[in-house]
Specification:
By secondary structure, the protein is an alpha/beta fold. It contains nine helices and seven strands. The protein has one domain (about 10-190, about 210-240): 3-Layer(aba) Sandwich (Rossmann fold), CATH 3.40.50.720. Helix 4 (about 100-110) packs parallel to helix 6. The structure holds nicotinamide-adenine-dinucleotide. Pfam families: adh_short_C2.
């Protein structure tokens, strides 16, 4: 376990699912955790459960992202770790997809990542320290999935953004990396239905879905001081799903 004592950590989309798993692991490593989420009721309850703090965030709004970081600095004076995790994944076939579907996906998943990382860098640069971990996905960067073209584009886009941003702040003591979850059992995934979950389980070499804490542990490593020499990289956490399995396995 890495020691995050005295570290101020902000987790977006931290009210539930993977974000809550990340918040839980960071808190158990000693960080002061701030959950930022659009869902005020669940966000407050999760923050209380983890002995952390809650702030409102609509990640698709530039103003909301900037206000969030200002509020963190006002209350905690610094920001050491940003886990930019918020994301949505409603399914939609390409033939029926409207511009609105496309824009909603990108406003939250991709533009939201840009807004949050930019706002965090404004305070991390003067500190000469920061750890940013973006939650991407295997869908898009490594695999494709019918019904998720807009999602796949947003998740691949996050990685292009992450690599270039990592280079822009490589001399500032700031690292930017991404975790790429496979199928992690969250409310968002459960919404895809039982058939989908069974199909996915059968396709994963471990024959099990991941847990939010599995992603939390990976994020905790990338958020630690010890990961100082890792930047612009991706860490796949998927039970081996993207490995081609031999027929005898
Ligand atoms: P989830 O739906 O369970 O949780 C998402 C959280 O984001 C919720 O708390 C929700 O209130 C919040 N949120 C939604 N819109 C927001 C907005 N505009 N502003 C602020 N907060 C908002 O999702 P999850 O499964 O935990 O996924 C989290 C991240 O992990 C996403 O980026 C997703 O793409 C990625 N991911 C998930 C899986 C998986 O299998 N669950 C796999 C790969 C990648």
């Amino acid at each position: 376990m890495f020691d995050l004592t005295d570290q101020i950590a902000l987790v977006t989309g931290g009210a539930k699912g993977i974000g809550k798993g990340i918040a839980r692991v960071l808190a158990s490593a000693g960080a002061t955790v701030i959950i930022a989420d659009i869902d005020e009721a669940v966000g407050k309850a999760s923050a209380e459960e983890l002995n952390g703090h809650y702030f409102y965030l609509d990640v698709s709004s530039h103003k909301s992202c900037k206000q969030l970081v200002s509020a963190v600095i006002r209350d905690f004076e610094r920001l050491d770790i940003l886990c930019s995790n918020t994301g949505i994944f409603p399914q939609c076939d390409l033939v029926t997809m409207t511009e609105q579907h496309w824009d909603e996906m990108h406003d939250i998943n991709l533009k939201g990542t840009f807004f949050m990382v930019q706002a965090a860098l404004e305070v991390m640069r003067p500190q000469s320290y920061g750890r940013i971990v973006i939650t991407s996905s295997i869908t898009g960067p490594v695999t494709g999935f019918p019904g998720w073209t807009h999602y796949a584009a947003s998740k691949a886009g996050q990685l292009g953004f992450m690599r270039s941003a990592a280079l822009e702040c490589a001399r500032d003591g700031i690292t930017i990396n991404a975790v790429m979850p496979g199928n992690i059992l969250t409310e968002g995934l459960q919404a895809q239905g039982e058939d989908y979950l069974e199909q996915m389980k059968a396709a994963i070499p471990t024959r099990s879905l991941g847990t939010p804490d599995d992603i939390g542990h990976a994020a905790c490593f990338l958020a630690s001081k010890e990961a100082r020499y890792i930047t612009g990289q991706t860490l796949i956490v998927d039970g081996g799903q993207v490995l081609p399995e031999s027929p005898e396995a």
